[in-house]
Write a structure and sequence with these properties.
This protein has about 475 residues and is an all-alpha fold. The chain has 20 helices and 2 strands. Strands 1-2 form a two-stranded antiparallel sheet. The chain is globular and about 60 Å long.
Amino acid sequence: MEEESCTLGKMKLLSGIHSNALAYSMTTLGAGMMNSIFNFYYVKLFLNRYQISETAFHVAQVVFMIWNAINDPLFGYIQDTSRLECCARRQVSILYGAPLYGLAFLLPWFPWRHYEQGDWLCGLHLTVALCAFDGLLTFVLLAQCALFAESCSGHHGRLRLIKYNQVATLMASTSVLFCGLVSDNMEKFAYFQAFAVLIAALATACMCCTGKYSTSQYEQREIHAEDANLENSDGAFSSASVVSLTKQIMTEKNFLCFVTMNFFQVFHLAFYNNFMMIFADNLIPEDILSSSVRSIMYGAGFICPQCLVLLSHASLKKFGYYRIIMFSFYYEGVAAAVMCLLGQEHYYLLAFYVTTNMVIVQASFSLFNLPLADIIDADLIKHKRRLPLSSMVFGTNALFTKPAQSLAPMIVVKILNHYGYYNLNNVPSHPDIRSFLDLHDAMFYLVCLVPLCIAVLQILIWTPFSIQNSHLAAPQ
C-alpha cells in the first residue's frame, strides 16, 4: 500500500495531520516567507532607494547568473555522494543550513554605508547579497526537494505533500501583504527592516523543524547498509563522476522537455516578482488604486496561487499535472492577447490581468515537483540505481533554469532604461505622466507580449512530454 511506503516506520497521524508531511512543509513555510519578500523588493530597493547604476546592476546579475547556475548541480552532486552527515542526510542539511539562510536573507536590507548615486559599493553589495542568498537557498531547498521525491513513491502520496506544501506556501505568501502594510510598500524603511528581521527569525525556526522531525524512506531502508559498507567500499554511486551522472540525466527526452519549459517559467515568474510593483505603480494612477489597495493586490499575487492549487486538488487527481499545466499556458496566452488588444487605458482590467496572470504562473510552477519526481522515478528504474539521484536531478534542472532569474531583470531593466526609466527614477519631483508616454507604452507591451510569447513557446515544448498519466497508476 502507498500508505506504508510513505509512512516511514511508525508514522503517526495526529488529529488527522500527517506528521511527516507537516514537518516537510515547514521548510516551505520558512523559505517562502523569505523568498517572497526578497524577490519582490530587492530590485526596487537597489534601483530606487540605493540608486545603483545600470552597469553595476548588470554586472551583479551576470555574476549571480553564473553562480546561480553552478551551485545547483554542485550542491546536488555533493548531497547525493558526500559521506559528511551535514551534506548526505537531507534533514541535517536543512538543520545546519537554515540559520545561515536566514542571515543571508537580511543582507540586502541593510546598506553598507550611505550610498551616493552610482556608488560602486552598492554594486558589490548587490552581488554579495544575491550570491549568498541563492547559495544558502540552494543548499537548503535542494535537500527539501530530494525529500519530496524520497518521502513518497506514489502519485497520491506526493499530492498529499503538495497539499501540505501549498497550505504552508499560502501562509508564507502573506509575508508580502503584511510587509507592504507595515512598511507602506517600503516607504517606512525602518519598519521594513524590523519586519525583515522578524521574518528571518521565524523562517529559521520553521526550517529547523523539518531538520529535526522529517523522515525519508530511503534513509531508513539504507542507513544500516550504508554504515556497514562505508569503510569497505566506495560504491559505484559515489565513485561516478558528476559529468557522467549529469549526462545520463540530460539524455532523457522528458527531462529535456521539462527543463526547457521550466526555463521560460522561471523567466516568467522572475518577470512578475521583480517588476509587478514597478509596472503597477507606473501604469495605474494613484487615484485609481490607493496604496493600501495596491498592497492587497501585491499580496494577492502571492497568496492566491496557493489557494488555487489547493482548490484544484481534485482536478489534479482526475486529470493529472500534465493537463493542468498545459491549460495554464493556454490561459496565459489568451489573457495576454486580449489585454494587448484592449489597451492600457482599462486600469481596473489591467490590474486584474497582471494579478491573475501572476497567480496562474505561480500556481502552475508550484506543481513542477510532480513531473521532476516522476523523472527521478524513471531514472531510478532505467539505470537500476540503488538510491535515486534526487538532488542531482533537481540540481541539473536548476543548472539550466536558474539563469532565467538573472536574465529577466537584466533584459527588462535594459529596455526600461532605454525608454527613460532611469531618468524617471532620478527626477526629484513627481513628473507629469504625459512626459513618459513612450515608457508607459513599453511597460504595457512588456506586460502583454512577454507572457504571450512565453505561453506559445511553452505549449510547443511541453506537448512532447510523455509522462502524462502517472495519476492513473495504481497506488504503490
